[in-house]
Design goal:
heterodimer, A: four-stranded antiparallel β-sheet, globular, B: mainly beta, four-stranded antiparallel β-sheet
Chain lengths: ~110, ~110
């Protein structure tokens, strides 16, 4: 199993550009989520999905869109990049939304917006 | 709302020293508690967890006890190694909202010197 994979590893954007961060998992997990990690702030939830075709907003959703057309993939779209979106982005998955479940994290995407 | 507070870092120790990283939480209901570890350049991975009061989670020589009376989940290890150098995150799962969401502390960086 590859686990949770993310691409790209690094990305530099100019303000106003759009892009998609890719996330895939091969563990047949129902639950997937996106977090951003900023210094001194831990990880904050952007969007999550409890299954194919179902998505919902997390703590900091503004400026981001998601979709979940398959169980495996959960891309994160930045519509019009802003410097405030400079961060490290982590995708995670777990078996389901159960609160005891371990979440598996991808290696992260480091995004810089100029 | 729910929150997690960790001790400020970085924590610098010599090899074989005793480690404590403090974590306290505020939550409604009965959350599960987790410690995740992030090694340099990698995503987060689960270190240990506890799902109810007085449970002790343990793994790789680390342990933490779910203390409901003090709302704490402090991480301890009797003898740290250089390979334990990483960022440690305390987290809780929101049980009331049924979203699968994790609330993270800000992270504590541990540096172990030979």
């Amino acid at each position: 199993n590859a686990g949770v994979t993310q691409t790209p590893k690094f990305q530099v954007l100019k303000t106003g550009q759009s892009m998609t961060l890719q996330c895939a998992q091969d563990m047949n997990h129902e639950y997937m989520s996106w977090y951003r990690q900023d210094p001194g702030m831990g990880l904050r939830l952007i969007h999550y999905s409890v299954g194919a075709g179902i998505t919902d907003q997390g703590e900091v959703p503004n400026g981001y869109n998601v979709s979940r057309s398959t169980t495996e993939d959960f891309p994160l779209r930045l519509l019009s990049a802003a410097p405030s979106q400079t961060s490290v982005y982590f995708c995670a998955s777990s078996l389901d939304r159960g609160f005891n479940n371990e979440q598996f994290f991808g290696p992260g995407t480091r995004l810089t917006v100029l | 709302g729910n929150s997690v507070t960790q001790m400020e870092g970085p924590v610098t120790l010599s090899e074989e020293a005793f480690l404590t990283i403090n974590c306290t939480y505020t939550a409604t209901g009965y959350p599960s508690l987790f410690w995740y570890v992030q090694y340099p350049g990698e995503g987060l991975q689960l270190l240990l967890k506890a799902t109810k009061a007085d449970d002790k989670g343990s793994n790789k020589g680390f342990e933490a006890t779910y203390r409901k009376e003090t709302t704490s989940f402090h991480l301890e290890k009797g003898s740290v190694q250089v390979s334990d150098s990483a960022v440690y995150f305390c987290a809780l799962s929101e049980t009331a909202s049924n979203t699968g969401k994790l609330i993270f502390g800000q992270g504590t960086t541990l540096q172990v010197k030979p």
